[in-house]
Amino acid sequence: MDQQTRQALKHDQLADTAQHGLDWATENRRTLVVVSAIVAALIVILAVGAFIFNHRSEQATTAFGEAMQAYQAPLASPGQQVPPGVKTYPSTAERAKAANQLFLKVADSYGMTSSGKLARYFAGLTYMEAGENSQAESTLKDVAGSWNGDLSSLAKLALAQLYRKTNRDAQAVEVYNDLTAHPTNSVPAGTAQLQLADLYESENKPELAKKVYAQLKDKDAKGPAGMIAAQKLNPSATPSPAAP
């Protein structure tokens, strides 16, 4: 087969392929129009959805900032002079109650945003600070079940504190062991182990506390938690200076 014949056949194949595509498009024109319309509609919906989500995220961030301002407001006794325009509270519990309502509002209104999820966690903390332990436990358990590992770990750590506060040390030990077995960026294993050792010390179980400190010292000798553990095991020792 000569070169001219091969080129002619190749051209015919391309022409046949193109014609086949045109024939199919003609036969399925209505389907193509419908599919194109659906795709265009989906693009519009996604664009509008992204705009709305971003707008709500900005609103959530602003509302969360206002809640944090209340949570971090200064305390002042009645009659104490404070700068004009500065909001103060007479006690930690009163401040926590005020901030709690703001955090709950953010969490309920913007629950799908990162600020809304974080607000739920702070709602649990402020419930606890206000002495409303039942609500604190329920809220923190909800956050502890979150798919966000860092936020879940923070909630579990707060739950352990609540268990200790309400004389449920056995449950706190379970949480600390779980956090040790499943460390995250927000709650490293060392942090959970230090809390566990502190619990044993508060229960007057120094041997158990020393065991935890010794394990932590061996596993994380140069880390912050390991250095704290070493200091706990030998309080008279002078801490080594940090490497430059």
Kindly describe this structure.
- This protein has 244 residues and is mainly α.
- It folds into two domains: 49-77 and 85-144, no CATH class; 149-234, Alpha Horseshoe (Serine Threonine Protein Phosphatase 5, Tetratricopeptide repeat), CATH 1.25.40.
- Helix content is 75%, strand content 0%.
- The chain is built from ten helices and no strands.
- It has helices at 3-27, 29-71, 92-109, 114-129, 133-144, 149-165, 169-181, 189-202, 206-219, 224-233.
- Helix 6 packs antiparallel against helix 7 and helix 8 packs antiparallel against helix 9 (206-219).
- The longest helix has 43 residues, at 29-71.
- The chain is globular and about 50 Å long.
- The model is unreliable at 5-10 (pLDDT under 50).
Offer a concise description of the structure.
By secondary structure, the chain is an all-alpha fold. It has helices spanning 3-27, 29-71, 92-109, 114-129, 133-144, 149-165, 169-181, 189-202, 206-219, 224-233.
